[in-house]
Write a structure and sequence with these properties.
InterPro entries: Ribo_uL30_ferredoxin-like_sf, Ribosomal_uL30, Ribosomal_uL30_ferredoxin-like. The chain is α/β, with parallel strands linked by helices. It has helices spanning 18-26, 42-50, 62-71, 76-88, 129-136; strands at 4-9, 34-39, 55-58, 97-100, 111-115, 120-126. The radius of gyration is 14 Å and the shape is globular.
């Protein structure tokens, strides 16, 4: 089981509640289509649930972790080893790793105003976050 989560910000700041804005700022996701690799913790889960209308998250696979590490500037050899360790839970991220993304190719396909479980885009995606990130990287 993966000990890291990938969190993607889907929306901007317009019309955002100040408490929500502060929570997203503490996650360091400053702009729409910014992704971060975060070490899993119960406090992170609580923060994500609080601001779920603006974010989507899930458990990344080894290939997704590797691609994000390369995009963040890690050398290929180091990124491959670290991605395997992160997926297995052998290594831990000292701080969140942030990267900028493009909007998804061919669009979202569903409403950004509905939860993923209700046929939308925001909220917990589980393993299907990898498909979204593949279109955004």
């Amino acid at each position: 089981m993966s000990k890291v989560l990938v969190v993607v910000r889907l929306k901007g700041n317009v019309g955002m509640d100040p408490d929500t804005r502060k929570t997203i700022e503490s996650l360091k996701l400053s702009r729409a289509f910014t992704a971060g690799l975060f070490p899993y913790s119960p406090s992170l889960e609580g923060m994500l649930k609080k601001v779920q209308r603006y974010l989507t998250w899930g458990k990344p696979n080894k290939q997704t972790i590797f691609t994000i590490l390369k995009r963040a500037g890690y050398v290929s050899k180091d990124a491959k080893k670290l991605s395997e360790q992160l997926e297995n839970g052998d290594a831990e991220l000292p701080a969140p790793l942030l990267v900028r993304l493009r909007p998804p190719r061919k669009g979202f396909g569903k409403s950004v105003k509905k939860a993923f479980k209700s046929g939308g885009e925001y909220g917990d995606r589980g393993e299907t976050i990898n498909e979204l990130l593949k279109r955004m990287l």
